[in-house]
């Protein structure tokens, strides 16, 4: 049976979805996170670096709530609105995933919720 993961240390779902879902066989699927400050629900102030940091902090909070760590992440998908920001996103991302890095896809999209610059989702496994 699947377990729904929810924490106040990350933004609550703003639609009909869960922050994360842990399957009976140990896979963890974390919904895409945007740079919302959990306490206020507002988009973090600052540019792509601040937004990427907030997204990764939100993801880490959900992964941790499920009993996993970022080292358990096996796959990420990164959505950015400007591929010109790839280097900056990659630099921040590299501070969170330092060894045995997960597989990853990075795509440029035309628009993200609340007009943020970045969204990331992850899959983790134990």
Which CATH class applies here? Alpha Beta
The run of helices and strands is EEEHEHEE
What do we call the CATH topology? Answer: 60s Ribosomal Protein L30, Chain: A
Gross geometry: globular
What fraction strand? 25-35%
Please give the share of residues in helix: 10-25%
**Side-by-side strand order of the widest sheet:** 1-2-3-6-4-5
Number of domains: 1
- The chain-level mean pLDDT equals 97
Number of beta-strand segments: 6
Radius of gyration over C-alpha positions, nearest whole angstrom: 14 Å
How many angstroms separate the termini? 16 Å
Structural class: alpha+beta
At the fourth level of CATH, the homologous superfamily is RutC-like
| Main sheet attributes: strand count, strand direction, barrel closure | 6 strands, mixed
Low-confidence stretches: none
SS summary, helix count:
2
Q: At CATH's second level, what is the architecture?
A: 2-Layer Sandwich
Would you kindly provide a written description of the structure presented here, covering whatever features stand out?
It is a single chain. 23% of the residues lie in helices and 28% in strands. The longest helix is centred in the middle third of the chain and has 18 residues. The radius of gyration is 14 Å and the shape is globular.
């Amino acid at each position: 049976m699947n377990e729904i993961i929810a924490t106040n240390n990350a933004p609550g779902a703003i639609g009909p979805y869960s922050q994360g879902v842990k399957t009976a066989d140990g896979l963890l699927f974390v919904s895409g996170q945007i740079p919302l400050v959990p306490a206020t629900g507002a988009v973090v102030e600052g540019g792509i670096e601040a937004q990427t940091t907030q997204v990764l902090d939100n993801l880490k909070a959900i992964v941790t709530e499920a009993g996993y760590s970022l080292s358990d992440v096996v796959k990420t998908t990164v959505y950015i609105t400007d591929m010109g920001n790839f280097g900056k996103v990659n630099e921040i991302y590299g501070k969170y995933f330092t060894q045995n890095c997960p597989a990853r896809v990075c795509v440029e999209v035309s628009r993200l919720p609340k007009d943020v610059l970045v969204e990331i989702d992850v899959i983790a496994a134990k």
